[in-house]
Specification:
Blueprint (H helix, E strand, L loop, with lengths): L30 H12 L14 H11 L6 H34 L4 H8 L4 H8 L3 H7 L7 E3 L9 H11 L5 E5 L19 H9 L2 E5 L5 H9 L7 E5 L14 H5 L7 E5 L12 H7 L5 E5 L5 H10 L5 E3 L9 H5 L11 E3 L8 H12 L8 E3 L6 E2 L5 E2 L6 H7 L4 E3 L19 E2 L5 E2 L14
Parallel strand pairs: 1-2, 2-3, 3-4, 4-5, 5-6, 6-7, 7-8, 8-9, 9-12
Antiparallel strand pairs: 10-11, 13-14
Helix pairs in contact: 4-6, 5-6, 11-12
């Protein structure tokens, strides 16, 4: 355990050591003599540093310092010793960096402009590691273009509000994307609600430059702080928020879709994961939400309180929507699929994911597949209805062996991938899962298989 500081002697701060050239020199000072003395001191490196032998340098330090313990000015002497040790340490590090810089400037094959270009392609953590290698690398890594895409999620536990402010300041007018927080909800980090305050500096200059913003498990309530942040980012085209509701907020997350998108009319990719308890669903803000985002092409609402009527409004309202993921939604039975057949015959929708929708009905999925066979949803390429809960049968109970026209889909729609994984109720292992897959191989022939593991489909938006 570290010893507590001596209250009679102030703690030494190495950063407070002044440049020797700026200090007042005593009369008769001879720089040459000082250089000679330091050179003689450093030439003692051939002696053992740490040893029980009286000839070791460590023992010599102890003897000299012990002699001044009883001296009246011992505090000043010890402080002076710490200052000199700090100066020696700093000078040694500068020398090491100069040597590395000289070596790199001779052996590094790229021009500074190309080095900066390479550094701009690195993730933020790797960029920081490269910047401390030598002065040359540090200079190249300070270029604003290297901070266009800031990702601080990989070192979340070491990132505080000050680090975020420094990064945004370094990016300046080149700032385009920002990722903050911890991807793992169980991790602890130092960011607070004011971590995005730098976006508002200089009348929101930095926020106006952002095109992509990803926030992971930050304590931002959607009604206040999140909306305030997004109001500073009117040019966002990509927004991802994990942990949409925090604390004790019980307001239904659907009610916040319109407010948070009011100032984001250019948004194309929206990913929201709800982590709070939702109240009774309301569709009053869904229409406004649709009107706010006319360019939306990719939408993920994970564990949101949407129902069939809201989903129908969303899919029919977003005319450019190609990807929609409503996984974990408890309010969907699938009846919205029945109403979308004729109205969405020429819909650009390519991907539909309804994983783990607790009340999704087998009959509604069957009618949807028949609608696809009839020529509706011409652009659809990927459908996922996998669920650990199974599907709701006509008898109102969970079924893990639904009957779907797989063979007809294979013949008439060879370009469609249909995934339905239903773990057996008695086991959650992948070996007891069933996969219906209709797809096209590299040779153009389709295949139909059971018991294969499926990789998690990732929304690239």
């Amino acid at each position: 355990m570290d010893a507590p500081p001596n209250p009679k002697r102030p703690c030494h701060d190495p950063s407070s050591v002044k440049d020797p050239s700026s200090l007042h020199l005593a009369p008769g000072f001879n720089q040459s003599n000082v250089d000679t003395t330091i050179s003689s001191f450093l030439s003692l490196s051939d002696l053992p540093l740490f040893s029980s032998s009286p000839l070791s340098i460590a023992c010599s330090f102890d003897r000299v310092l012990d002699k001044v313990i009883d001296a009246s000015d011992h505090d000043r002497f010890l402080d002076r010793t710490l200052q000199l040790a700090s100066l020696l340490h700093s000078s040694t590090k500068r020398c090491i960096r100069k040597r590395a810089t000289l070596h790199n400037s001779i052996s590094w094959p790229l021009l500074p402009e190309l080095t900066t270009k390479v550094f701009s392609m690195l993730d933020t953590k790797s960029l920081m590691q490269a910047s401390v290698c030598c002065t040359m690398f540090n200079k190249c890594a300070m270029d604003r273009v290297c901070y266009s895409h800031i990702d601080l999620t990989m070192a979340a536990k070491n990132v505080d509000n000050g680090v975020v402010c420094i990064m945004i300041h370094r990016a300046g007018k080149e700032l385009r994307s920002l990722k903050l927080g911890s991807i793992s909800s169980r991790s602890t980090f130092l960011l607070t609600r004011s971590c995005l305050a730098p976006l508002s500096f200089n009348h929101g200059f930095a926020g106006g430059l952002l095109r992509s913003l990803h926030l992971y498990n930050l304590t931002l309530t959607p009604g206040k702080s999140l909306c305030a942040v997004l109001s500073l980012c009117p040019n966002l085209t990509d927004l991802k928020v994990i942990g949409f509701i925090s604390g004790t907020d019980k307001v239904n997350s659907v009610e916040h879709l319109a407010p948070i998108t009011t100032n984001c009319r250019l948004i194309e990719h929206l990913f929201l994961e709800n982590c709070g308890a939702a109240g009774p669903p309301s569709s009053s803000s869904v229409v406004e939400f649709v009107d706010n985002c006319p360019n939306l092409s990719s939408l993920t609402l994970f564990q949101f309180g949407v129902n069939d009527a809201m989903t129908r409004t969303i899919i029919m309202g977003f005319r450019q929507l190609k990807y929609i993921n409503l996984s974990g939604t408890y309010g969907i039975s699938g009846s919205f699929l029945r109403d979308l057949g004729l109205s969405c015959k020429d819909s650009p929708l390519e991907t539909l994911s309804l994983r783990d929708c607790y009340y999704l009905k087998e009959r509604e999925v069957l009618l949807f597949l028949n609608s696809i066979l009839a020529g509706d949803f011409k652009s659809i390429r990927y459908i996922d209805i996998s669920s650990k809960h199974g599907l709701v049968s006509d008898a109102g109970i969970a079924t893990f062996e639904p009957k779907f026209p797989i063979e007809e889909l294979k013949k008439q729609k060879p370009g469609v991938t249909f995934v339905a994984i239903f773990p057996a109720p008695s086991s959650s292992s992948s070996s007891s899962s069933e996969l219906y897959s209709d797809s096209t191989s590299s040779s153009g022939s389709s295949y139909y298989s059971y018991g294969e593991d499926e990789e998690e489909y990732d929304d690239s938006g």
